[in-house]
Each structure stands twice: as C-alpha cells, then as structure tokens.
Design goal:
Layout lengths: L1 H4 L8 E3 L12 E6 L3 H16 L3 E2 L8 E6 L4 H19 L6 E6 L5 H10 L5 E3 L7 H11 L3 E3 L7 E3 L10 E5 L1 E2 L10 H4 L4 E2 L2 H13 L4 E5 L16 H11 L3 E5 L8 H9 L6 E3 L7 H6 L6 H14 L4 E8 L6 H14 L3 E6 L17 H24 L5 E9 L7 E5 L4 E5 L8 E9 L4 E6 L1
Parallel strand pairs: 1-8, 2-3, 2-4, 4-5, 5-6, 6-7, 9-12, 12-13, 14-15, 15-16, 19-21
Antiparallel strand pairs: 10-11, 17-18, 17-20, 18-19, 20-21
Helix pairs in contact: 7-8, 8-9, 9-11, 12-13
Bound molecules: 5'-deoxyadenosine (5AD) and iron/sulfur cluster.
C-alpha cells in the first residue's frame, strides 16, 4: 500500500487478454460471492467468464462447489468482518465434507498488506489470492495452485495493463455493466480505493463504443458506464475527449438506456449536464456523493469542493435535466466533525431533498490520511448522527416518491419481484425501483407503468398498455 500510494509515470499498456489453458475445470463447479460496489459485480462477471472458459460450471451453494472465490471489498471495516466470517464457514466445509475445496480471494482486500499478512500467517487454508491489478491472470494462479499444491499469492503494488477481451458472463441479458475507467487519483483522505485500485486509467473510446455497439446488437436495452470517478474519464488519455463526448457517442448508437456511476462533483462540468439533458437515452439519474455539508470537513476530506459549489452543480442538474433524480453518499463522524458541522450536513440535506442517500459512519482504513487524524468521534456519537441523518433522508425519499403516485412512467422490467413472486419489478428512467402488477412476459421490455403507491425505497405500480 505504501508503494501504491505513489503515482508513477509508468506507461499504461493496452493489451488483449491472452490466457489459453486446457479445460482443467471440466466437470467441476464454482461459486463466486461478491461484496461491495458495482465495479466488483462486474469483476465477478469476468471471474465467472474466465472460470467457464476452462470448463467450470456455476453452482448456487458452497456445499456443492469445487472452488469458491470471494470477490472482496475494503471500503469499510464491516466489509472485512463479513469476509473473514465467511472464511470460517468455508474452513468448516474443507475440514469436514470437502477437503479438496479450493478457496480463493480477489478484490480490494487482496490489495491490503495487513490482509495478506493475516492470510499467510493465520489462514493457511486459503488456497490463492489474486490482486485487482492482475485479475486477468486468475486462471494461471489457480492452475499453479492445483499443480504445486502450495498457497499462491499474486498481488501487484502498481497497476498493470488495461486488458481488453477478458471473457465475461453477464448476470443479465437486458442490462450490462461497461467499465470505462479503472482506479482513482482523487485521494479523499478517508478512502482506500486509490491504493487498492491504483491510478486512474481510462479505456480507449474505441473499445468502449465497440462494446456498446455489440451489446446493442445482442439485444441489451441498457448499459451502465462504470468508474470510481466517471467524470474524470479520458483525462489520463486524451486532451480533447471527455465523458460528455463519450456519452454523446454512446447515445448516437441508439441503445435505449445509458447510465453511469459514480460521479465526483469536482470533474462534473456544465457541458456534461447539458449533454445528459439533451439526450433522451441518457438516463436522468445522477449519484452525486456529497460526503459532508461542512466546508471544514470537506476540506479535511480533501473533497476539493465547498458546499456552495456542490449546491450550484446540484441546482443546475435539477433545473436542466427534466424528471431527474439525484442520490448521494454521506459520511458521519469523520475525525473533527462537530455537532455544528453535522448540522450543516443536515441543513444541506434539507435543502437538496435527495431522492435517496447511502449513509455511513466513518470507518478508519489503515494507512489512509484520515486514519492518522487525532480528533476522532466516538462510536456512540457516530451512531446517533447516523440515525438522525437517516430520519431526514428517509423523509425526503418518501416525499419524492409520493410525487409519482398516479403518474405513468417507463420501466425496464428486469425480473420477478423480490417481494411478491406473482409480480415483476423494474427501474424507471430515473432509477426508482417499481414492483409491478404484470406478468413475466414483460421481463426484458421497457413498458408503461401506472404508479399506485409509494414507499421510501420503492414504488408499486400496475402495467398499462
Ligand atoms: N468510512 C466510511 N465511509 C466510507 N466511504 C468510503 N470510504 C469510507 C470510510 N473510510 C463511503 C463514501 C463513498 C462510498 C462508496 O463509501 O461515502 O462515497
Ligand atoms: Fe474514494 Fe474519493 Fe476516489 Fe471516490 S473519489 S473512490 S471517495 S478517493
């Protein structure tokens, strides 16, 4: 992590995936568990794609699997605890019913030195670890483990190449993730991502556009562009091509829905707002992390904007992009946050009335600048602020959702409803989850739905022709 902190001028190579091995997984089953963000979900689709390319098939329980891979997240301490808890379950299976079970760890936790030390010393039953920068080498690592029968750990401090053409098995046949950029150079002081995912590397515009064209030909209705900081897309690669250009070019392909996550206010230009506002197939949904409403705390976080600048961008999005919804991320209990600072966050939430917010108690991440800050906030105060914040956040989610009652909205139906199997569910253009009275033949279509009831986290509706 100490090496990973340094940004270097190493040239990033753009290379084709080039692993060809015999079908050493023939007749065997895999189970992949994913923790964390959408980028990890898409990485898991690549892990599954690679495993299938050598003959493994997916199964849905760890008891029947020959290989289990945990694709981990390091963003907060509780993500760690979940992974180590689950490793205990896997150890039990290995000790009792399946001594040949292979256990592997990928994802952000594998880039943390403390985790690797722990795995080498205490978790000897973990068979292999593959870092985030060398994910494309996963099959070789597994093969080496099988051939040598010794624990394999391959993690790079520095980002590797941008690898195109990694096999992928997508979870959905309607909606697809598309990486546009890897890594992050923002170094918010609480965040571990710039260390675990390395410096920002954009994919070329040609590779992205080709992927979107192919997805459209394959019948996909929706693509979601992924990056830690999508608004900085292209900065490391081009002087005259940015997210606004990419969105326009993707929109011209004519795929029905284009989305993107996650945005950073610093790189979000008016030009981008105008492009989103002017194109019907760029969805009016923006996830715009705020983190704090206090200028003092924003500065300590190294967020590079003030509450006034955030509000200006927020108001521009709301006024220019019609029917837009905006969600956010907020951290409470950052070191040095006083009750007055927290009140400023509440004030801003009262002003913005977000459609929704993911709220977090500050979690100390080893080796980040915030971990060394002295004025820590007690767990009790953090939890109290979190509860108070959630109450306000939920009030506005509810209010925003209530405004949809009686309206007819367009939904992309993605599958059966989790709540009621006789119903289906889907997402509106502005990313509201709707449980829909309608039959399963609607799955995969964009249909009109009349909203009948609104809750804080979802809407109910009925399919209308
Ligand atoms: N503690 C608490 N929340 C964090 N996040 C990132 N790092 C931390 C941390 N150390 C939150 C931020 C970010 C979201 C993905 O996770 O709000 O936007
Ligand atoms: Fe972390 Fe900040 Fe980069 Fe987001 S922008 S990944 S919060 S460092």
């Amino acid at each position: 992590m100490i090496d990973a902190k340094k940004r270097n001028n190493n040239k990033i190579n753009y290379v084709k995936y080039n692993v060809s091995l015999d079908k050493f997984g023939d007749g065997k089953k895999f189970f992949v568990r994913t923790y964390g963000c959408q980028m990890n979900e898409h990485d898991s689709e690549k892990i599954k794609g690679m495993l299938k390319s050598v003959g493994y098939v997916e199964c849905n329980s760890v008891e029947t699997a020959d290989i289990v891979i945990l694709n981990t997240c390091a963003i907060r301490e509780n993500a760690h605890d979940k992974v180590f808890g689950f490793l205990g379950v896997l150890k039990h299976i290995k000790d009792t019913t399946n001594p040949n079970l292979l256990i592997g760890i990928c994802g952000c936790m594998s880039q943390e030195k403390v985790v690797i030390d722990e795995i080498m010393n205490k978790y000897k039953y973990v068979d292999f670890v593959c870092g985030t920068h060398n994910l494309d080498n996963l099959l070789n690592i597994i093969k080496d483990k099988i051939d040598s029968n010794t624990q394999q750990i391959e993690v790079l401090s520095y980002e590797g190449d941008v690898v195109e053409g990694v096999p992928v098995v997508r979870d959905s046949i309607y909606s697809a993730w598309v990486d546009i950029q890897y890594g992050c150079d923002k170094f918010c002081t609480y965040c571990i991502v710039p260390y675990t995912r390395g410096k920002q590397r954009s994919r070329t515009k040609e590779s992205i556009i080709d992927e979107v064209k192919k997805l459209k030909e394959d019948g996909y209705k929706e693509v979601t562009f992924l990056g830690q900081n999508v608004n900085a897309y292209g900065k490391d690669l081009y002087t005259d091509y940015n997210l606004a250009n990419l969105l326009k070019d993707a929109s011209d392909i004519g795929i029905e829905r284009i989305r993107f996550v996650t945005s950073h206010p610093w790189d979000f230009t008016e030009e981008m707002v105008d492009v989103i506002a002017s194109r019907d197939n760029i969805m009016p949904y923006i996830h715009l992390p705020l983190q704090s409403g206090s200028n003092k705390v924003l500065k300590l976080m190294n967020r590079r904007y003030t509450r006034e600048e955030y509000l200006k961008l927020y108001n521009s999005i709301r006024s220019k992009i019609k029917n837009s919804s905006v969600t956010t991320d907020i951290i409470v209990g950052f070191p040095g946050e006083t009750e007055e600072d927290f009140q400023e966050t509440l004030d801003l939430v009262n002003e913005c009335k977000f459609d929704g917010a993911f709220t977090f108690a500050f979690s100390k991440r080893e080796n980040t600048p915030a971990a060394l800050m002295k004025e820590t906030v007690s767990e009790e105060v953090k939890m109290d602020r979190l509860h108070r914040l959630n109450e306000v956040v939920n009030k506005y989610s509810n209010e925003r959702n209530k405004a949809y009652e009686g309206q007819i909205v367009k939904c992309l139906v993605i599958g059966p409803s989790d709540k009621d199997d006789s119903k289906v569910c889907g997402y509106t253009e502005n990313m509201k989850l709707v449980n829909i009275d309608g039959d399963k033949s609607l799955i995969g279509q964009i249909v009109n739905v009349k909203i009948t009831d609104a809750k804080s986290f979802s809407l109910d509706g009925v399919y209308v022709k």
